[in-house]
Amino acid sequence: SSEVEPLVGSSSGDFFGTCSVNKLLIWKFPTKDFSPCEVRKIKLHHTKQLTVLAFHPNERIVAGGDITGRILIWRGFGKRTFSQNGSYRNKRVANVEEEEPGVRDNDDADSCSTWHWHPTEVKILSFSSDGAYLFS
Questions:
Q1: Does residue 112 contact residue 103 with C-beta atoms inside 8 Å?
Q2: Is the pTM of this model over 0.70?
Q3: I need a labelling partner for 54 at 20 to 30 A (CA). Which of 23, 35, 112, 122 fits?
């Protein structure tokens, strides 16, 4: 990225991410026994510039806000890329649209949905501590 974007960490301590134009970039925090060649990231794509992201406190869910005021929710992100034993890696279903609704560009997520529109760009996103609410 040409500009320095803030890094956002998950409250579980498992993931961190940032916005890069129309993508969310997400990494898994390395374990104590990691090797540098094991560092992997995923990209979650959107059609508009993303401005902010937030991780759900208990589930593999990430929210992203964009410049047009939309909020997108990706559920089940990183299962293929971040799997411990590689069992999910390179696994794709032929009919992605039916199996992974709203997911773009071979993104590593179970689904992606748009929840809400604001009249201007989304600047702040935060899940409640129990994950029941998303504040924007």
A1: yes
A2: yes
A3: 35
What is the SS3 assignment for 98?
helix
With beta carbons less than 8 A apart as the criterion, state whether 43 and 107 touch: yes
Distance, in Å, from the CA atom of 26 to the CA atom of 7, rounded to the nearest integer, reads 10
Q: How far is 97 from 123, CA to CA, in rounded Å?
A: 30
Beta bridge partners of 35: none
DSSP-derived secondary structure letter, 38? G
The alpha-helical segments, DSSP class H, found in the chain are: 96-99
Q: pLDDT tens digits, residue range 47-57? A: 999 999 999 99
Measured distance between the N- and C-terminal CA atoms of the chain, rounded to whole angstroms: 25
Of 76, 71, 77, whose CA–CA distance to 17 is shortest? 77
Token output for 116? 């809400």
